[in-house]
């Protein structure tokens, strides 16, 4: 089994099976955009370890803008 990735804030998850071979699908509420994979699959890594095929996606507001300062810091 993979760890439960939860549900992204301002989004939805379809599926609840977290066993090896299972996939989960993600979507976002209106006014939000999915950042990352729409679907992740639980994969066997070793005999005792399983992990998701990608990081859990998150939902970002369509109007949010990130800017970087000259020092590379996020504002």
Automatic annotation (TrEMBL):
Ranges where the Sushi domain occurs: 1-61
A GO cellular component entry from the record: endoplasmic reticulum
InterPro entries listed in its UniProt record: SEZ6_CSMD_C4BPB_Regulators, Sushi/SCR/CCP_sf, Sushi_SCR_CCP_dom
CDD domains the UniProt entry points to: CCP
Pfam families recorded: Sushi (PF00084)
Record keyword Repeat present: yes
SMART domains: CCP
Record-linked SUPFAM superfamilies: Complement control module/SCR domain (SSF57535)
Domain of life per record: Eukaryota
GO process terms (BP): regulation of protein kinase C signaling; synapse maturation
Keywords on record: Disulfide bond, Repeat, Sushi
Protein name, UniProt field: Sushi domain-containing protein
Species of origin: Callorhinchus milii
Taxon lineage: Eukaryota, Metazoa, Chordata, Craniata, Vertebrata
């Amino acid at each position: 089994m993979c760890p439960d990735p939860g549900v992204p804030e301002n989004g939805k998850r379809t599926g609840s099976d977290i066993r090896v071979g299972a996939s989960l699908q993600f979507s976002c509420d209106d006014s939000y955009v999915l950042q990352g994979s729409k679907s992740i699959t639980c994969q066997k890594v070793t005999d005792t370890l399983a992990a998701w095929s990608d990081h859990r996606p998150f939902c970002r507001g369509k109007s949010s803008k990130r800017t970087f300062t000259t020092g590379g810091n996020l504002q």
